[in-house]
Amino acid sequence: MAEFMDLEAQDGVRMAWNVLPGTKQEANNCVVPVSAIYTPIKPFPTIPVLPYAPLRCRTCRSILNPFSIIDFAAKIWICPFCFQRNHFPPHYASITDDNLPAELFPQYTTIEYESPGDKSSSVPPVFMFVVDTCIIEEEMSFLRSALSQAIDLLPDNSLVGLITFGSLVHVHELGFGHIPKSYVFKGSKDVSKDQLLEQLNFFLKKPKPSAGVIAGVRDGLSSETIARFLLPASDCEFALNSVLEELQKDPWPVPPDQRATRCTGTALSIAATLLGACVPGSGARIMAFVGGPSTEGPAAIVSKNLSEPIRSHKDLDKDSAPHYHKAVKFYDALSKQLVHQGHVLDLFACALDQVGVAELKVAVEKTGGLVVLAESFGHSVFKDSLRRVFHSGDSDLGLSSNGIFEINCSKDIKVQGIIGPCASLEKKGPLCSDTVVGQGSTSAWKMCGLDKATSLCLIFEIVKKDIPDATVQSTSNQFYFQFLTYYQHNSGQMRLRVTTLSRRWVAGPGSIQASSVFLFSLIDLVDTYLCLGCVHGSMSNASSVDMEYLCMISGKEKRKKRMNDIDRDLIAGFDQEAAVVVMARLVSFKMEIEAEFDPIRWLDKALIHVCSRFGDFQKDSPSSFSLSPRFSIFPQFIFNLRRSQFVQVFNNSPDETAYFRMILNRENVTNSVVMIQPSLISYSFHSGPEPALLDVAAIAADRILLLDSYFTVVIFHGATIAQWRKAGYHHQPEHQAFAQLLQAPRDDADAIIKDRFPVPRLVICDQNGSQARFLLAKLNPSATYNSDASVPGGDIIFTDDVSFEVFLDHLQRLAVQ
């Protein structure tokens, strides 16, 4: 898979199939869809940034790229997507084979343009903090401390606002420096834009416009009025810290048999409306800090009575969650408002109970927001993740905003949709497929917020090649993709990143290429047959029946050989890591939108079809079954995906499941594979750190294991290691080797945690301890309570789940049928 990682290092793209099936039927037979995982603003150290506007094709609007055909004499370039001939403008007059512009260099398939005349750099970043006050005093002190540290890390020119909410919503006027001053809104009442602006006295000094949309300084508002609620961080730091220091728990009394009155939806709606009026189109972020479930207003997820439990997966499956659909509808409307304004919703949910992440998912995901889920505002997962958001340096998140993502493809491909943090711009055209997956029926998407790790999963459809349509492609077997990402860099400058890819397709039986190969082969064979007849003097014996039989046999043999060649090419271009990530996003998406969907059956059926199609075996002989190295790990990936938190919702709340899927849908292939199949490293005195099988057999009394499951990093000490540690041997000078053995996994865990967002939970546990469950839950149960024998010093798993060996045995038997 090294070559696929090299391609990702060059362009930020991983494709499940790097050699594409040439017909729709062939693509359907491949089971795993033609797809790509693309990281739009992945940082590249050598990427050129060109200080001029790109050159576009006048027909399809694609951009000049290294795959364009250049006529240097006529100063013409031919678009590889639509074959349109385009003239170079005058400033390209000196172009020659030895004097190429950067966008035509073969190594610059990914390039960026930055227009020097763009004045967008004057727009500062905007942060609106929306803070929950319906939490206990201890949690409030943790949250105050974390917010104070975050404010110190804000860029000096960034604009900051503050809204607090409990039973009421308080919009704080930070520009009023004499005393803390806020405007109060009822939590159960929906507030319109006109009502909000009127109550906040936006038109005291400047009259309200009689017509038109009120949006920022240019459209009806004065900068002095806006500065009452959004101030530069350097100007309002004292006032903001003063408000935070005096921030108290919501004073509204809570009866012992009821939940606190919390109006999360109303507070977020007011924040979105205020930002839409003051700074529309800017890179503004609403950062919501929520400590419990919403019980008041249009987005309540549960009633105030403690006798009513918060919805579970079982309730959602039975459609017996009375508040769920109303809350989702509210946040869907809020997401459309935020996407229209170009603003982002970030969610920091910290509570032992659910807070409504499942309902908020649509708004956070469509705006490209960040999400962090932790048990407490004092937990390191929350505190370290919040610091990472504002951290600047080599390991910063690279937060960018106001992105628009577009696709151009060769005419034989259509786009079914994108699964990831974006929203459809409903730009319909010939590239749009009738089949919709995720955000579909468009060739352009809005990405309000994106960072250098944000990844999109693009699902394509191969259009069937009929004979008339294939004439142009019969001389070429190349597909072309072009991804355009127009975004506001974290420096404030607007940039356009262009990635152009070329992939090869293999012709199916219905294409001209395959038909012509078969036709010429048949003619050659018939000529040979006739010649043989002449030599032996039996020309008259070459009856029409013999000829028909010969043609039939030849057709079968050629077709079989052709299919084998196609399979060989497809196998060579299969990226099993990218494929399982695509399958994980697809199965998560289907579980959310299809009522009676059975994810285990769907995954098993897909895997059986893949193994039947690309496996090497004799019919009805399981022992003869084998897979190419390109497919060898794919069954193991699917086995772990079946057991993962994305598919198995048992013992997870709807909030946790939504959180896991939101992170999966925005991460790149490498990180997503770790979520699906965690990595395990073994440390012992006998050898250095080495990878270990994700199996219960990896546990030994004299071994330390480091498990990375992305959301959790576990350091697991074997029974003997734990006893030595408790005895304090690592503090004794003669046992320095033991001290180094204990420290090695801790250093590696710190390195993992340092570069990851959200920051994972670190669990340090011992064999047979209660927290060992974090490791055991991820291991293959090759030794269970009903196994014949267990390894001395090892462990067993109390489960009825089948092991990977049993799973593989059943797979082989079904695949060869």
What's this, in brief?
The chain is α+β, with helices and mostly antiparallel strands and 817 residues long. Helices cover 34% and strands 20% of the residues.
Q: DSSP strand (E) fraction?
A: 15-25%
Q: Structural class, from helix and strand content?
A: alpha+beta
Number of strands: 30
Helical content, roughly? 25-40%
Give the distance, in angstroms, between the N- and C-terminal Cα atoms: 30 Å
Regions with little confidence, pLDDT below 50 for 5+ residues? 466-475, 509-560
Number of helices: 22
This entry's quaternary arrangement is single chain
Q: Please state the average pLDDT score.
A: 87
Q: What Rg, in angstroms, do the CA atoms define?
A: 31 Å
> How is the biggest beta sheet arranged?
8 strands, mixed
Shape: globular
Report on this model:
This protein has 817 residues and is of the alpha+beta class. Helices cover 34% and strands 20% of the residues. Strands 2, 4, 8, 17, 19, 20, 22 and 23 form an eight-stranded mixed sheet that branches. A hairpin with a 6-residue loop joins strand 26 and strand 27 (690-691). Helix 14 (576-593) packs across helix 18 and helix 15 (599-614) runs antiparallel to helix 16 (634-643). The protein starts with a helix and ends with a helix. Mean pLDDT is 87; it is low at 466-475 and 509-560.
Which helices and strands occur, and which strands form pairs?
Blueprint: H1 2-11, E1 13-15, E2 19-21, H2 24-29, E3 35-38, E4 49-50, E5 69-71, E6 76-78, E7 85-87, E8 110-114, E9 126-132, H3 137-153, E10 159-165, E11 168-172, E12 182-186, H4 193-199, H5 223-226, E13 231-232, H6 233-245, H7 264-278, E14 284-290, H8 313-317, H9 324-341, E15 344-350, H10 357-366, E16 371-374, H11 380-390, E17 400-409, E18 413-419, E19 423-424, E20 444-450, E21 456-462, E22 478-488, E23 494-506, H12 512-535, H13 544-572, H14 576-593, H15 599-614, E24 616-618, E25 621-626, H16 634-643, H17 654-664, H18 669-676, E26 679-683, E27 690-691, E28 704-708, E29 712-717, H19 719-726, H20 736-754, E30 761-766, H21 773-776, H22 804-815
Parallel strand pairs: 2-23, 4-8, 9-10, 9-14, 14-15, 15-16, 29-30
Antiparallel strand pairs: 1-3, 3-21, 5-6, 6-7, 8-23, 10-11, 10-13, 11-12, 17-20, 17-22, 18-21, 19-20, 22-23, 24-25, 26-27, 26-28, 28-29
Helix pairs in contact: 3-6, 3-11, 7-9, 9-10, 10-17, 12-13, 14-16, 14-18, 15-16, 15-22
